[in-house]
Amino acid sequence: MFTKSEAIYRLRELSEIIAKSRELYFNFNQSDITDQEYDQNISEVTQIIAKYPELDDEFKILNQVGATPNSKFKKVNHLTPMYSLSNGFNKEDIFNFLKQIRSFLDVPESKNIDLVFEPKIDGLSLSLIYKNGALFRAVTRGDGQIGEDVTENARLIPDVPLSIPTEIETLEIRGEVYFPNSAFKELNEELKKAGNKAFSNPRNAASGTLRQFKSNKERSKNLCFFAYSVGSDPHKLADNQKTLLKIFNDLGFKTNNISRVFSNLEQLLKYYEEIFSMRPSLNYEIDGIVYKVNDFRLQERLGFRSSSPRWAIAHKFPAEISITVIEDIEIQIGRTGTLSPVAKLKPVNVGGVIVSSATLHNKDFIRGFDNKGNKIRSGVDIRRGDWVTVYRAGDVIPKIKNVNVSKRNATSEPFKFPLFCPSCNSRVEFDKADSAIRCHNFQSCKAQIIAGLKHFVSKKAVNIEGLGGRIIEELYHKDLIQQPADFFRLETKSNHGLDLIEFLGKGWGNKSIRNLFNSIDSARSIRLDRFLFSLGIRHIGENASQIIAGYFVSWEKFYNAIRIGISKNDGQLLYEIEGVGQLMVASLLEFFSDTKERKKVEDLLNYVKIESFIKHNKIETAITDKKLVLTGSFKGISRAELKSICEKNGAKVLTALSTNVDLLIVGQSPGSKVKKANELGVKQIFEEEFKVLIDTDI
Ligand code: IVH
Predict the structure, then answer these.
(1) Model's pTM, two decimal places?
(2) Which one of 86, 178, 228 would you pick to mutate in the ligand 1 pocket, going by the greatest count of ligand atoms within 8 A of its CB?
(3) CA contacts within 13 A on the Cβ side of 570
(4) Which atom of ligand 1 is nearest to the CA of 259?
(5) What share of the chain is helix, strand, coil (3-state, %, to 5)?
């Protein structure tokens, strides 16, 4: 059998051959090799992957069917963002969800708030835009702001009406596309018979079919669609969610028949149990239940957080659990130097997905303690060779639930965390703040640099497709990529790709190189939030990047605030942002104060154009772009709601007063802020006047 590097070499060869024949077969209905030859190639890949499961992710030969879902779909901006849902995992989470709603809306316990119960279909969301009743465009969710235009394929879905009886000029219907379980079984049997790898679950089958570059009529006929919301202004159709679902039916859409309205939490949770127990008998996969506030007026008041509505929650079903063994514990070094232990597992199927590694978080987790020092797993540690139960948290990152100590080998020993960085050999340090063990050689630890480069190209950052982890490592070791700007110089530096073809090996042909350069080219224009996230600054994750980008809107304004912060040695302009804490500000200033980091960013700016953060529905009001501070309590409205109203009116709500603040809104029993505002000369306004100013009748 192969050594690992031989396996990589052979997989490259096979992936090129298989990709070519798949493309011919699926996109052009032709074959360049016999079915037997195709089968043989696939079985060779299967054998290699069985020995080196970690390569499965890299080459992605087995889990794809048909030609690679193509990035050639036109990218389209959503008319309004497609949000995701926050998750709840138990009754307490749901109880808190309702409590927060009551507090935001200032509604007492004695008054009911109706909630709509809808199954959370495990498919993919789709936005259908109708112009004067005719289907104009169908767009996938994408990153929530920009999706892919899949109109041609969506037209083939029987549940998607091509025209609907409406007078509304532009109507956007959103819902879930899914592959029914029965059709999924049949499809997989056919695929296996034809020597193709089956889809691992119905969700992938739905996604693969909808995102197939060349439409497949037969397969698309199996796709189904449940409508559950509109893109904006639901009032145009109904006053509440329940009625909206009925109206969807009148327009010719299918809606889910499990949906109900409840005004009592106990009954709602009872129905949750009922649906959970009938889950296996449904002809579609559901991974939880969505609860939505029924009344659209209340929904509108509740509004959205950065990525999810306050008026809905997904009550997830308990994760599926499987048993396997830990073959090894490896240490991975992250882009910020954190040493993360990872369990390498004997591959196991967890709820339809093959899992071969699981996070072990940190030293405490391995020892059997949580981050507060409390025992987890009754204090049992985790060792190499242990039999464990694994689950997928929120169906994403695999985690270890428990250890079966009775099956533990008598000779096994507790895991010892390294004292030196496995990559650069610097002594590692324990950071009490987040229980992390960190390599502080930030500038020159190779593993950190490579992790930073991988992060830069990742999907939620600049999203350069076709650059797997191993390829980045090779590009780094071959001295072609040392810092982010190098990706944009790769074409010139690699002799227009000829060098890449030579050293990346046979799997890389002219076509894959061209695709790679195209993908790099499309990253030359990038939205501010993604750009900030791509820099990999510690504590500046996706959410923080969005908040910061939403506040400054343009790179110039952001960078200016940073420059002022550095020159004055004070991040005041950044502290003002609600949701951006001290740790983040300190980290931003530290990053940009570092000449080397700043040079890297400025170098990058020679190649990329940073697009301003798009603000949807920006309205001009008396307080647009004004900086406000609230003090005291307000009549008939919670502070959270008042803040949200100010934001909807285009203002920025800050926590602390300074000379930068335009207006202090004074409620009942205000605190010391009034005095401070007088000293600073900040204008003040009482709540009644303020409500008139922004024309709200709450
Ligand atoms: S409402 C603003 N309702 O869940 C809320 N979503 O994590 C928008 N989903 O991307 C979603 N069934 O793909 C809603 N009955 C349902 C749903 C549902 C499935 C999916 C949807 C969305 C994801 C949110």
Answers:
(1) 0.72
(2) 228
(3) 4
(4) 15
(5) 40, 20, 40
